[in-house]
Amino acid sequence: MPRNSIQPAVGPETTAIRLPRKRMSKWELYSRRFRRNRPAVAGLVIFAVLVLFAVVAPLLARYDHIELDFLNLGEPPSGEHWLGTTSAGNDTFAQVAIGLQRSLMIAVAVSVGTTVISAVVGTAAAYFSGMFERLTLLLIHFLMVVPTFLLLAMFSNDSGGDWRTISLIMILIGWFFPARVIWTMALSLREREYVHAARYMGVPGMKIVLRHMLPNIGSLLVINFTLGVVAAVMIETGLSFLGFGVKIPDVSLGSLIGSGANTITSAPWLFYFPAAALTLLTVSMALVADGLRDAFDPTSAAGGRA
Amino acid sequence: MIVVATNLTYFLAWGFLDPRNNYVGRRPPLSEDQIVQLLQPRNLSDTVSLLERWWSWFSGIIFRWDWGVSPVGQSVNDQVAYRMWVSAELVLGATILATVLGIALGVYTASRQYKLADRIGQATSIITMNINIVVAALGIVLLAIGFNNMVGTTVFFVTGSASSDVTGFFPIIIDALQHLILPTVALVIIGYAGTHFLQRSLLLDNINADYVRTARAKGLTKAQAIRKHALRTSLIPVATQVAFTIPTVFMGAILTESIFGWNGMGRYFLETIAKNDIHGTVAIAAFGAVLTAIGALLADIAVVVLDPRVRVS
Question: Is residue A28 in some structural domain?
Fold first, then answer.
């Protein structure tokens, strides 16, 4: 710390001069506000460890997740199979790692897709107003009445368990609710002076939406993205648990829990490990979202001063 | 909206489900004629054109309130009428409990903002809210089995909604409770946290308002002032949210019902898709849409009841 870092009182009665102070950049402020929220940092660390596990563990594992070890059927955790084996002889360690990887890929793909679509559609509807706005809102309200989980189950049951198709369907069914929220946020943005100024300068409509309106709801979008990851993991798990999602030989955390549920008393390790991975994943993402919300919110008073 | 959505689901269901698949691999194999003979009287045969099928299905609903039959000939009306109450038994109880618990916790933690109790409450709620319902339900099953083994008798039943061999008024109630308690606990654990967070933040917005200070100044204790003045204002959005979540909870009980083996709407939903039961699937979609409408209506009623500024003519 430099010697003269304490600012003496400045005013007409004193001769003290104002010390030059280094301004804090916006991102520095955000990251400092985020770091002061200890649960959020813990969430970020847990999430990073999970991602690392999903990437590295398949390389370390002694067995492939499809490989069957006929000498060890339904064995509890041991030195040979770190997290035990299934009744068919699959290595649970490799399965959990691959399943986590698959669940993460689906969750991130879905969350990116829904965030991008909902942001563009929501702000564009607010900016262009008139006919386009009315049509978009009509579509959104209609989709709200349609039983989406039913459609999701029918589509993905039909898709044969390919995770890319499942992600695509989840994006198509998940974008409209956030779009509605973003539309309400963007309504006040379209009346701002800088939007008017850009319009009268002759900036094309879509460019105003992308360059001037979207960055101003950026913090909301980041939070939406993290919460979207949680929601996508939940839905994907539900689908795979019921057997409508990812199908054998591909595994996800949901399908692992689903097969572990059948042997929950005789082979509980098949349930414990995927369930623990899943809980850590969703809880850590929720903590991160909570920390981001506090960091971005200028009125937030949670957890002391910035 | 409901009518349009239901009809759209009818066509979508025909696009993805084919009742003919139920007869694939049957031993001895059924001939084409036999399949058509089985399906045609149930309005499920694709030899009739889609528009004609749609009209006889739709007119059946309009004129006779007949939602059609499944591929094996069970009436959809009977199924829904029976299963609706099984689901309601589970879902309504769980929703009420979760709401009461959420509001109570919200009030308790908001009046002790940033104290230890508040911190612990927040941390617990953020964890329980993000545990997957599957994990929660299976964890509860494990605990209950452990407890049953420890006590030596079956205190909690982990499957089914009722035992068949119980007679008498009180034994039936006790038996129902033994079945009900585990799935309800699972749903409450997942569901209460949302209400808790909403109630807490809304009450914090109101707790320092002028009218609460006035109430304190005229001699009410802090607890009275919060309960009679601040809580009433901040209950309105909570009530709206709870009313709107009723359809979601009903459908969200799919996983709970399939884990605990309840024959409710959620189970029915899975069965209809697995058995290519088009009429059943569409009936469930319509049921969900009606629940959404009821939720919206309940939300309006709740606002009128709670907010004295809203007058109904």
Answer: no
